[in-house]
Automatic annotation (TrEMBL):
Keywords: ATP-binding, Nucleotide-binding, Transport. InterPro entries: AAA+_ATPase, ABC_transporter-like_ATP-bd, ABC_transporter-like_CS, Metal_Ion_Import_ABC, P-loop_NTPase. CDD domains: ABC_Iron-Siderophores_B12_Hemin. PANTHER family: IRON COMPOUNDS ABC TRANSPORTER, ATP-BINDING PROTEIN, METAL TRANSPORT SYSTEM ATP-BINDING PROTEIN TM_0124-RELATED. SUPFAM superfamilies: P-loop containing nucleoside triphosphate hydrolases (SSF52540). GO terms for molecular function: ATP binding; ATP hydrolysis activity. This is ABC transporter ATP-binding protein. The keyword ATP-binding applies. Pfam families: ABC_tran (PF00005). PROSITE patterns: ABC_TRANSPORTER_1, ABC_TRANSPORTER_2. Residues 3-238 form the ABC transporter domain.
Length: 268
């Protein structure tokens, strides 16, 4: 399923945060958003989801403008994993994941056994079945993030939007989540995610969209867009991009210039 924006501008009231973003991502692809805090990535996501009213432009799914779609219609197609936030009510983790089935239920209907099975399958996919009966407000921030991802997977969306999905996760869980996300894209899911780790774009993304102060800085393959110049423009830091293999667009690392000498000495 293709997700596309054309000249999308969005913000809060009269304040424009994101301006003139045109991009697309196809089913089976991962589009990675890079940009400093406050550059507009979350605002962009919320506008695609219909949580914020757009100021200009279009959001299209398979060529159809989604303006006027009901929240339920969007929810049946688009899953969303926000940055983890503390919950107000002490739900069980399984109950939080079950909320992802809401768009599949009739008005006032209760979750069926099948819905519970879908929720449990989503938790098993992320190796968090042990959290099923634990209170969501009492688990760690990283575990909360995994529960929110399971909730989105239980929704069975065609498009998945993830806002910094590896925030608060330990090293192993970061790898687990990104591998699961890439696996889902290989099954045909359309994925857009934001991250503060440029290396993740080299490892997992088909294309990258760079943000700078709410405007597009570049859109293309990781090797085309994740450059020294663009990283300096986004984050204000000089880096060395080091290739780990000889392939064009292969695995790469971004190392701050100030640390390059230290790394080279340790390697030698």
């Amino acid at each position: 399923m293709r997700l596309e924006t054309k000249g999308l501008s969005c913000g809060y009231g009269r304040k424009t945060v994101v301006e003139d973003i045109s991009m697309f991502v196809e089913g089976g692809e991962v589009l990675c958003l890079l940009g400093a805090n406050g550059s507009g990535k979350t605002t962009f996501f919320k506008t695609i989801l219909g949580l914020l009213e757009k100021q200009a432009g279009q959001v299209l799914v398979d060529g159809r403008d989604v303006e006027g779609w009901s929240p339920a219609r969007r929810a049946r197609l688009i899953g969303y994993v926000p940055q983890a936030r503390g919950a107000v009510f002490p739900f069980r983790a399984l109950d939080v994941v079950l909320m992802g089935r809401t768009s599949h239920l009739a008005l006032f209907a209760s979750p069926s056994e099948e819905d519970v099975e879908k929720a449990e399958e989503a938790m098993a996919m992320l190796d968090i079945s042990y959290l099923k009966d634990q209170v969501y407000t009492r688990i760690s921030g990283g575990e909360q993030q995994l529960v929110l991802l399971a909730r989105a997977l239980a929704q069975e969306p065609r498009i998945l939007i993830l806002d910094e999905p590896t925030t608060n996760l330990d090293f192993g869980r970061q790898f687990l989540v990104m591998e699961r996300v890439k696996s889902l894209s290989r099954r045909g899911l359309t994925v857009i995610l934001s991250t503060h780790f440029p290396e993740q774009s080299f490892f997992y993304a088909n294309r990258v969209l760079c943000f700078r102060q709410g405007r597009p800085l570049g859109l293309g393959s990781p090797s085309e867009v994740v450059t020294r110049e663009n990283i300096r423009a986004m984050y204000g830091i000089d880096v060395r991009i080091i290739s780990l293999d000889a392939r064009q667009g292969g695995l790469k690392l971004c190392i701050p210039d100030s640390l390059v000498g230290c790394v080279q000495k340790r390697v030698s």
